[in-house]
Amino acid sequence: MKMKLSSFSPTANLFKKINSNLTKNLGLKTGKTGTVILRLFLIFFLASQPAALMTSAGQNPRTNTIAIVGGTLVDGTGKEPVANAVIIIEGDKIKEVGQAGKVRIPKEAQKIDASGKWILPGFIDCHIHLTSETSDLEYYRDSNSLATLRALQLMNMYLRCGVTAVRDVGSHVEAMQALLRAQRNGYIDSIRVYPCGDLLTITGGHGYGMHGSMAVDGPWEWRKAVRQMYASGFRHIKISPQFTLEEARAAVEEAKMLGLRITAHGGGFSDTMPPTMTKVAIQAGVECIEHLNEMDDEALDLMAERGVFNVPTLMTYYASYQRDDINRFLVEKRGWTMAMHEMLFKKAYQRKIVMGIGTDANGEYREMYPGIYFDEMRYFQRLGMSPMEIIVCATKNGARILGLEDELGTVEAGKAADLQILKGDPLKSFDNLGSPEIVILRGKVYRF
Ligand SMILES: [Zn+2]
Predict the structure, then answer these.
(1) CA of 19 to the centre of ligand 1 (A)
(2) Rounded mean pLDDT of the chain?
(3) Do 42 and 159 sit in the same domain of this protein?
(4) What is the pLDDT of residue 62?
């Protein structure tokens, strides 16, 4: 069963509508110039969306101090919720947090009354491919401009749901650069993106040939690829099998020398990629393993011992099994089932391996956004984690995985002012997540 893009994507319809209006009103033909003008128009149109929302909500973006009062704070550290909390925000940072009466509220502060509501840190998605195409046809018709807009669509969708930061583990390099620069220059106003740029793989390896991947062979090519991603402005590296220990070591060494974070796709993904790949990556010294695929207890013990993080991405596998488009070899010969991923989750949980929420909904699965993020949280709950622990996965652990625990992930003094205000108690039901009334990002208030 294949899902249709048009049933979900408002932007796709928007694109069609604007296209036909432009053709009608401006007399644009479908020539090259028309396409370029249309693209530029769309970039500005879409980029202006969150800013327009902010203005319509009557917020003054220049107001420097905000006081959130009266709400129940779930701060992301895993500590008990704080009732009647006061949070003072100054500029883009949290200045002070505490109980009412214990925190001085500056006179000039713009007050947000959160009585009867819940305040949480903005959520983090540790595994996303923002520019992923939705079909093979789109892949062949793709361009960097279109990929940039596709990414922005997802970013804005996430903003409305309270997901305020993502780590992109493989997307068009130019699109990622454009987004970062556009944010720095103030052209667009959306969530934080921490891209890896191209994922690095071998000729014929996992991810080979996709937009947002680079094929390299031999330790020196792997080193150079890491340097290229660094030179492109990225601070995260993603490696994908199958690499030799020498290649993975070269990439890890280079990344660490340049002060970059490095993560690896875990497990082989076909008949030619052995399950021992994960152990090779851990031995090489990566900081994080993506997915929970085919790991023996020794690999899990090694992860726990070395403090290697994990991003399970259960929902995307679940969707693959539902639609039966998992590689048959993996299912029939290697015994891949949802039960395997679930068992590994339980083993990782027992070993206290730090896990984050990642979605990885590529291709046609892209239609599962934004709900897949919260479904992933529900999946963790079904496997025995408590709601509070899962909120920590979505916030503090996400920040740790990104290497940004000093800046993001919790509502504490000195951290970035990225938070969300919810109508219902998230600890009672995750159905209360995903539709915050207010999202604050870099100290700016968005009311939805
Ligand atoms: Zn992925």
Answers:
(1) 32
(2) 88
(3) no
(4) 56
Q: Are residues 282 and 234 in the same domain?
A: yes
Residues 276, 256 within the same domain: yes
- Residues 372 and 295 placed together within one structural domain of the fold: yes
**157 Cα: distance to centroid of ligand 1 (angstroms):** 19
Nearest to 384, CA basis, from 343, 336, 420, 412: 343
Burial class (CB in 10 A: 0-12, 13-18, 19+), 250: buried
Residue 270, SS3? Answer: coil
Q: What is the DSSP string of 139-157?
A: HHH--HHHHHHHHHHHHHH
- Domain with 43 in it: 5-47
Taking the centre of ligand 1 as the mean of its atom positions, its distance from the CA of residue 356, in whole angstroms, is 14
115: CATH: 2.30.40.10
CATH of the domain at 379: 3.20.20.140
Span from the CA of 31 to the centroid of ligand 1 (angstroms): 35
Within this chain, do residues 155 and 171 fall inside the same structural domain, yes or no?
A: yes
Q: What is the CA(359)–ligand 1 centre distance, in A?
A: 8
Share of the chain above pLDDT 70, in %: 86
- Cis upstream peptide for 242 (omega within 30°): yes
Q: Mean pLDDT throughout 60-69? A: 80
Cα–ligand 1 centroid distance for 18 (angstroms): 32
Please name which of 386, 354, 279, 369 lies closest in space to residue 315, comparing C-alpha atoms: 369
> At 60, is the pLDDT very low, low, confident or very high (cuts 50, 70, 90)?
low
pTM: 0.86
Same domain for 244 and 317, yes or no, is: yes
- Give me the pLDDT at residue 213, please: 96
pLDDT at residue 34 greater than cutoff 50: no
Cα-to-centroid distance, 420 and ligand 1 (Å): 26
